[in-house]
Amino acid sequence: MLATPPLPETQARQLAKRGYYCTYLSAEPGHEQRDAVHETDTVIVPIEGEVELVFKGATHFPRPGREIHVPAWTAHTVRNIGDVTAVWLRGLEAVRAHSD
Predict the structure, then answer these.
(1) Which of 6, 18, 45, 70 is the most exposed place for a label (fewest CB within 10 A)?
(2) Residue 20, Cα to own-chain centre: how many angstroms?
(3) Whole-angstrom Cα distance, residue 15 to residue 9?
(4) How far apart are CA 58 and CA 81, in angstroms?
(5) CB under 8 Å to 43, separation ≥6 — which residues?
(6) Tell me: the pLDDT tens digits for 13-71?
(7) Of 45, 52, 41, 51, whose CA–CA distance to 19 is shortest?
(8) Cα separation of 89 and 22, whole Å?
């Protein structure tokens, strides 16, 4: 039996406590966000629908609520492979100021 995924708001708060800025993104069936690259580590968490996440030559099919970590400067594509609008949480690691 699969565990019930945490509520999106709960996951967003947990990611924020770990130093990530979170936004919700979506794509209609068959659409994708291709070759995104961020200067910080990224966490992708599917909320609704079915997504395919491709990076570093591997394809992932995360279930809702499961975090996938994408390292900084890594091109990645998120694709809606389902037949309903897909929604996911994207957390970008906060850039910390460095002092000399």
Answers:
(1) 18
(2) 11
(3) 10
(4) 16
(5) 15, 20, 67, 68, 69, 70, 89, 90, 91
(6) 899 999 999 999 999 999 999 999 999 999 999 999 999 999 999 999 999 999 999 99
(7) 41
(8) 7
